[in-house]
Amino acid sequence: MRYVAIGDSFTEGVGDERADGSLRGWADRVAEGLAAATGKPVQYANLAIRGRKLGPIVDEQLAPALALEPRLMTFNGGGNDIMRRHVDLPRIVELSRQVVQRCRDAGIDLILLAGPNPTSHIPLGRVVDRRGELLTTEITAIADEFAVPFVDMWHDLEIRRPGYWVADRIHLNPIGHRRVAGRVLTALGHPPTDRPGPVQDPRRSLSDHLVFYKEHVGPWVRRRVQGRSSGDHRSAKYADYVTISRESLRLGG
């Protein structure tokens, strides 16, 4: 099994840190779940980079991903686009269609994902929610047209609870990433191997909201004004294949 993931921070695994500070995330958990379910090693690459809009995902990640000749690919993008002031939804839809078509032409099994909906926790949530609904509707239509499995986390009501998110309110915590991985593994015909535990929603005080705006909203706005991204000068987590096996999982690899 050769599996490649492309996308942004959602797929990179931001919010799901190991003890050593490295990122895990739902795509890593899917690779681990495939190795555990099949008993066979999985060659896994993750080209996703935080902050990337859909255009750069397609321009910078798709060709290298195809060059790795995977059997399976997961693709998500557009979340950073719909959070910008100006967004070209028809272009995002067309780029998504191109990804699906190129994977089909290459004989790759593709799973499309819609990321979870953070809009009940963030400023201008109604605007982002409206855009996300339109985009998810279009991606659903593409998935239906090409008969591609589609994991729709945007309409997963459970994962919208605050207990699934980290302090910045736009990235999932480990419990959230486990939930996404379980949905993807189910779409692949395998039972989830790492089920989320009990979820407790934090009680947010006025001081919590003030800290949120100071430590997360403020820096995000400054990056937008300065034309910077959280992913500037970053490279892919796994630009080439790493091996995930039952043995490595037992050893904590």
Describe this structure in words.
With 253 residues, the chain is an alpha/beta fold. The chain is built from nine helices and six strands, in the order βααβαβααβαβααβα. The chain has one domain (2-204): SGNH hydrolase (Rossmann fold), CATH 3.40.50. It has helices at residues 9-12, 26-38, 54-67, 79-82, 89-105, 125-146, 174-187, 206-226, 246-250, and strands at 2-6, 42-46, 72-75, 109-114, 150-152, 238-244. The protein has a six-stranded mixed beta sheet, sandwiched between helices. Helix 2 packs across helix 7 (174-187), helix 3 runs parallel beside helix 5 (89-105) and helix 5 runs parallel beside helix 6 (125-146). The protein is globular, with a radius of gyration of 17 Å. The two termini are 18 Å apart.
Structural class: alpha/beta
* Name given to the CATH homologous superfamily: SGNH hydrolase
The whole-angstrom Rg is: 17 Å
> How many individual domains?
1
Write down the CATH topology. Answer: Rossmann fold
Named at the architecture level, the CATH assignment is 3-Layer(aba) Sandwich
CATH class: Alpha Beta
Strand portion, in percent? 5-15%
